[in-house]
Amino acid sequence: MVRAAVLQTSDNIRPYVESRPVVVEELTLAATGPRMVKVDVEMAGLCHSDLSVVNGARTRPVPMVLGHEASGTVIEVGPEVQAVQVGDRVAFTFQPHCGDCDLCTFSSGERCSKAFDANIDGTLIGGATVFSREDEPVHHHTGVSAFAEQTVVHESSVIRVDDDVPFDVAALLGCAVTTGGGAIKNAARLQPGERVAIVGAGGVGMAALLLAKALGAESVDVVDPAVVKHEMIRELGASEIYGPGDAPLDHYDVVVEAAGVGPALETSLPMLRAGGRLVSVGLPSPTTQVSLNYLDIVSKSKSVIGSYHGSGNAIEDLGYYIDLWRQGRLPLERLVTRTVGLDDLNEAMDALADATVMRQLINVKSGDPA
């Protein structure tokens, strides 16, 4: 049996600390399959992708063990696993891949049709679930479900990292840094001396800020409505901080939209100067529609780019980010606002929804019963 944070329903009203949509309970964890890996989870990050399932913006089956950004140690591997071995320190990735479908072939595993279906269905690749309570299946979140003491995942859901990488840093690598950093490095292909704006100062947006600075951006401005976070943003090295609609127009070479709401994307496009690139990594509600100036895109040669999971090779990218971290050029620890335990998840969801934090880490071992 393992302790896990289980989302019971997506229709609870806030504050979540009172309605308590997430309950920590003991679950049965199934045996490790041929290409599966069992991981002892150490640290997990709380992301808007988790919140969007809790608040119903992204409909997923329940009950579900949440969590997709995490780190831990491999404690068991299936007989066909090749990527990792027992004892390896790993970061999780929320984009597993089967290795067999056409999308996998053309994208080197960064896009997988079976994984897309499994993530929507709340299963692992192949349709299996490994968590249960009294013979009732409990669903997976993006094939990871890291808000648990232990989890079983497809081998492509973990990436080995060296033992000198702390678990808190390794956890951030799996989503915030892969997504935000990849928007800058792979999707925008930032060049030294370019001007950058980040719209949305969550963990993903601020990871994009750190990487843009590391790669030599002339300036990195941030747009975010939460005044309570402005001092934190300034401490991370933002050149200027603006409220929505206040940033200069026709000014930036790269704008990263990390807010996940329609108006943020709509107001980002006019901020670009001619030839600029707008990269959107936000995950809005499926019903969200936006209106963009068609002529502005064409006549000024602007690009609008969607980026998921960093738009690159996750294994190579993690190694690149770790090297920058070792050099002191990518201070990822500074993204963390606070660390809480599994039992504090509902209150942490409220803090995330109120936009008073950047990244909260979950110490999944904290609060273990004696």
UniProtKB/TrEMBL annotation:
Highest taxon of the lineage: Bacteria
Q: Which Gene3D superfamilies match?
A: Medium-chain alcohol dehydrogenases, catalytic domain, NAD(P)-binding Rossmann-like Domain
Q: Which GO MF terms does the UniProt record name?
A: oxidoreductase activity; zinc ion binding
- Name the keywords, alphabetized: Metal-binding, Oxidoreductase, Zinc
PROSITE patterns assigned: ADH_ZINC (PS00059)
Tell me which residues make up the Enoyl reductase (ER) domain.
8-362
Checking InterPro entries in the record gives: ADH-like_C, ADH-like_N, ADH_Zn_CS, ER, GroES-like_sf, NAD(P)-bd_dom_sf, Zn_alcohol_dh
Q: Does the keyword Ubl conjugation apply?
A: no
Give the matching Pfam families.
Answer: ADH_N, ADH_zinc_N
Q: Which cofactor does it need?
A: Zn(2+)
Q: What family does the Swiss-Prot or TrEMBL record give for this protein?
A: Belongs to the zinc-containing alcohol dehydrogenase family.
Name-wise, this protein is Enoyl reductase (ER) domain-containing protein
